[in-house]
Amino acid sequence: MNIIVMGGGLVGVATAWYLLEGGHSVTLLDRAPELASEASHANGAMLHASHTEPWNTPQALGQLLRWMGREDSPLLLRPTQLPRLMGWGLGFLRYSRPHHHARNTAVNARLATYSLQRMRELEAETAIDYTQAHNGILKIFRHPEEMETARASSRLMADSGVRHETLSPAGISQREPALADIQAELAGGFFYPDDASGDARLFCQRLGEKAVERGLTLRLGESVQRLHVKAGRLRAIDTDRTTLEADAFVLATGAEAPYLARQAGLRLPIKPVKGYSATLPVGGLEAAPRLPIIDDGRKIVITRLGDQLRIAGTAEFTGYDRRIRPQRVERVLEQGLANFPALARQVDTRQADQWACLRPMTIDGPPILGPSGIDGLYLNTGAGHLGWTFAAGTGRVVADMIDQRTPEIDVSGLTLERYQ
User: Fold this and answer.
1) Which ranges form a coiled coil (predicted)?
2) Quick one: 375 and 258 in the same domain?
3) 293 with 175: CB under 8 angstroms?
4) In whole angstroms, what is the distance from residue 416 CA to residue 420 CA?
5) Among 326, 345, 362, residue at a domain's last position
6) Dihedral over Cα of 212, 217, 223, 229: its sign
7) What is d(CA 7, CA 367) in angstroms, rounded to the nearest whole number?
8) In which domain, by residue range, is 374 found?
9) End-to-end CA distance of the chain
10) 403 and 319 in one domain?
């Protein structure tokens, strides 16, 4: 088949890769001049099955009300967005009920575990160097009640094969000496030995290069303008350059997917959620951490990438505003470096590369994969903060669906049918 993949981030490139493996003729489109230019560019750099809980936790409503309008909050709802979020927001809160949240955490954990297996296979097959490390991930807590809540999620995820080890504050310091200075502040933590880390942008671009060697046609700097649906089938798309026909299309444009889907009469329950990151040079600094760390209370992740340290976090409901707000980046840096007082005295935060992106969040948490209900149009979108973790798995699942093969994992809770 001749297949067009719309979206040149991790999800789109991984989907194109597996479609090429199936013997298809594949074209990948993206509006940016290079792959991984948007949400895949400078994310938290973690490949984790350990952090798959949807953001709409049972505590979400209280947190949103408490933090509304506060620039220093990890979860920020800008009041100007309230009218646009009304319907979606009520659904977001409905799915925050404990039984919904537990079910969707399990769905995400199942997909993440599968995806990390596929990722290890891809890494072995392609020999791509993306500053990867397979050292596990450490999650830390300052309050016992937060740790107990996370303990319940860790038990739930363990049913999907997500192994974890409980650590005392002293055990955390032994595992990561860079945290020794704040040991007295910690209630404990968990270590997830099967998780990994790596530069998502490097991986995406290098996998794209190898895909081109296998026959992928890349059309970069070209944006999709219109979807042509006739008699219930998507037959062609207009770009800003030309009209392209294909046997099948995959919509993998992240936060932009609802706009394009709406042209085909399809409403996707996805909203953009802005996240920020800062990347600092730390080469030669002994106080820099070696392990990837999730600071659960502050909603911050910290990842070593060779001689650099990536600090990322926050969830900001601000519509399609892509501006990098310096005060938000400064807050991410401040909260991340608070875990390493000695390092904070050594680094110059003015050297940080700042980044912001829009992550596509579904109303319930898991991504939307597979048939759209419109012949010829398939979906791979809505991964939220887990796009890097899910990319290999969702790419393989959607390729299997297009080829009418039964996916290797149970896809219940992952298709559009769950909303019907």
Assistant:
1) none
2) yes
3) no
4) 8
5) 362
6) negative
7) 15
8) 2-41+202-268+365-419
9) 30
10) no
Label residue 11 left, alpha or beta by phi (over 0 means left) and psi (-120 to 50 means alpha): alpha
Q: pTM of the entire structure?
A: 0.94
In a domain? residue 25: yes
* Distance, CA of 165 to CA of 171 (rounded, Å): 10
Closest by Cα among 16, 287, 285, 292 to 131: 292
344: part of which helix (H) or strand (E)?
Answer: helix 341-346
Which range (95-99, 115-119, 201-205, 415-419) has the least confidence? Answer: 95-99
Quick one: 339 and 286 in the same domain? yes
Contact 363, 95 (CB under 8 A): yes
User: For strand 248-251 and strand 2-6, is the pairing parallel, antiparallel, or unpaired?
Assistant: parallel
Question: Per the domain annotation, does 17 fall within a domain?
Answer: yes
SS3 238: strand
CA 101/CA 156 separation, integer angstroms:
11
Closest CA to 300 of 287, 310, 314, 290: 314
Tell me whether residue 48 is in a domain: no
Q: Are residues 19 and 91 in the same domain?
A: no
What's the CA gap between 401 and 17, in Å, rounded? 14
Considering the domain architecture, whether residues 223 and 92 belong to the same structural domain is answered as no
- Could you give the CA distance from residue 268 to residue 262 in angstroms, rounded to a whole number? 8
Assess whether pLDDT exceeds 90 at residue 8: yes
Strand ranges in 2-155 using DSSP code E only, listed in sequence order: 2-6, 25-30, 46-47, 75-77, 137-141
Yes or no: say if 294 and 140 are a contact pair by the CB < 8 Å rule: yes
Contact 47, 119 (CB under 8 A): yes
Q: Residue 165, SS3?
A: strand
DSSP state of 142: S
pLDDT digits (tens, 9 = 90+) for 390-403: 999 999 999 999 99
The 8-class DSSP code of residue 405 comes to P
**pLDDT (mean) for 315-329:** 88
Quote the tokens at residue 144. Answer: 């016992």
Number of domains the chain is built from: 2
d(C-alpha 320, C-alpha 40), whole Å: 16
Same domain, 181 and 137: yes
Dihedral over alpha carbons 93, 95, 100, 102 (to 10 degrees): -60
| CATH number of 241's domain | 3.50.50.60
